[in-house]
């Protein structure tokens, strides 16, 4: 079973990497970009076969390792 | 209009960051994780209002800046 986790900085948190991308896009002539946020995506290949159990397990992984929940939010998709 | 870009290492390319996460998950007692790949997600806020035009534009951005197409693949979602 595959799981995909998105980890993004929370909306109030400054995102210098996203700002750098926005600036670079402007320099390359890509106008009309009002905002950029960069985050991480983590794809996990799990032995677990039950979707609900996998979701709960991945949620735990996020809380303990994958995301810093003080400044980051995460979402889990199970496929 | 919002666009979300996923940039992942191509499947043949070694992903040390993913391997580090897999190892760390194992150390924390999360068994049953057969593979981990880590990539980037970039959320763009675009002034463009036409979905097809936005998709084409973001594709160009990926080719020129957001992805290194030698080793990375990208996918674009428009929302």
Automatic annotation (TrEMBL), chains A, B:
Pfam families: PurS. Its main location: cytoplasm. Its EC number is 6.3.5.3. It catalyses: N(2)-formyl-N(1)-(5-phospho-beta-D-ribosyl)glycinamide + L-glutamine + ATP + H2O = 2-formamido-N(1)-(5-O-phospho-beta-D-ribosyl)acetamidine + L-glutamate + ADP + phosphate + H(+). Transmembrane segments: none annotated. Belongs to the PurS family. This is Phosphoribosylformylglycinamidine synthase subunit PurS. It comes from Qingshengfaniella alkalisoli. The lineage of its organism: Bacteria, Pseudomonadati, Pseudomonadota, Alphaproteobacteria, Rhodobacterales. The gene is purS.
């Amino acid at each position: 079973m595959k799981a995909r986790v998105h980890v993004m900085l929370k909306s109030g948190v400054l995102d210098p990497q996203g700002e750098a991308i926005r600036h670079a896009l402007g320099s390359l002539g890509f106008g009309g970009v009002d905002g950029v946020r960069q985050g991480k995506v983590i794809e996990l290949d799990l032995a677990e076969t039950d979707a609900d159990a996998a979701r709960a397990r991945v949620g735990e992984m996020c809380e303990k390792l994958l995301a810093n929940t003080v400044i980051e939010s995460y979402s889990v998709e199970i496929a």
